[in-house]
Amino acid sequence: MFLEGLDALDGQIVRLLTENARMSYSELGQRVGISRVAAAARVQALERRGVIEEYTAIVNPQKVSGAVSCYFELEFQPDTLAEAAEILLRHDAVTQIYRVTGPCRLHVHAVAASAEEMERLVTGVIDRLPGLRESRCRTILSRIKDVKGLRL
Known about the structure:
This protein is α+β, with helices and mostly antiparallel strands. The chain is 35% helix and 20% strand.
């Protein structure tokens, strides 16, 4: 469904890498029936095309003592949205920013080391964003399901 722009072999490679991004080119090639060199070339081509964007370690903030994770729904005056997004982009505590439909213009996720650090983000950054009409904050209490990347 999501892989219509890829041939069957690239589709297999992407599926395998979403299951285990640390898979070696040798194992990847073996699993799809091509050489290690051909597997490496395929992966590099997918990276150049932007199909594969990055490989990363994902840290669960709930496993880190005192970490606080929140979602914000922020509504702005239309002419200030880009400026506000640019300000949010510069803050390390902000992990995701989405432009969304409906009354909320930006959906923002942030993780802070403590409640005090999250409060500083709210009062020092979010509350001061230009054109902010409304801000809603939801603190994440527990992670029930959290799918990373595209599941195929």
